[in-house]
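Illustration 12: Tetraspanin-10.
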Amino acid sequence: MMLECCAVAHSQCDSLPSLLSSLPFSRPASLPESLERRKSPLPVFGRHGAFFVFWEISLFLGAEESLPEYREQASYTKGSVVSFSLSPSSWRDYILKCLLVTSNLLFTVLGLVTLVVGLWGLINKESFAQEKISGIRTDPMLLFTFLGFILALLSLMGCVGALRENMCLLRTFSAVVLVLVVAQVLAVVVLYSLQGQIEDYLRSGMLAAMVRYQNDLDLRFITDEIQMGLQCCGADTYRDWGINVYFNCSAPGVQACGVPPSCCIDPLENGTVWNSQCGVGAQKLDEFSAQSVIFLGGCMGSISRWIEQHSGVIVTVVIILLGVQILTLFITAHLLQKIRWSRAQHAVYLQSLQ
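Figure caption equivalent — predicted structure in token form:
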């Protein structure tokens, strides 16, 4: 970042104070009052002269020592342009601030998209209707809405706090992120300690989704994707679908003793048409006859094998997510320290003007 201003002297300037002393300007008498009215020091190119501009920039970027730090490459001639190069520490602070703002802005957009998708799903399924409002607590779209709202609000708080250098917003942002990091670490520890019981919880969830297969479009979509993606049928065996009132062998209708088409090995006729009746009567077949029509293995075994095969990727993703959040905490703490330092220097400057 280069700051240029017109100069009128002829000789080389070795320091910022000597340069400022050669500039023909006078500080207005109302400068202390105008500075006191400013709640946060921002780089403003106003009518108060070059020294005010340079001082405000030093406060904004968070210099560590004093204003002459920015004089490393200052030169001027009569009628020419003066250039000031910022120190490496100032560049570092500026890059960290931009990184914090950009990352939070991206997560804000992601949170808003997730929020819109969740609300669209709830409205499209008429989940707020009087006859369906009782089951909204188990609606997966409600989870999307909640997570999107929290992510957008938290990221927007960090983005605005970094842009405006608002210590209240930054402290709240860092506190919430710290709580989330601790919660995620505790969740990982609990999941690792209860890994023997996780399969039972997954089985219970799978069976509950199978019971509500026809009544909940979201659970139907998730169940179909699991069965087609992992090439499985039911929780432990394809006969588990007997717990569904429509696929139970005692139920009336054409679906009795059948399985969903997502259990079929080839649910498409001629590769284009979805055959919704391909699983009809599959529960009546023995395993030898059924293996040419549907997947025999249950999804719980397939899920366990998938987790074992991708355990390295899962651990890597978890570490990266935690690392990004911890890095965000350090950057926010560094920015808060710089803001406190700049405000202290601002107060010292105000006292020197009195």
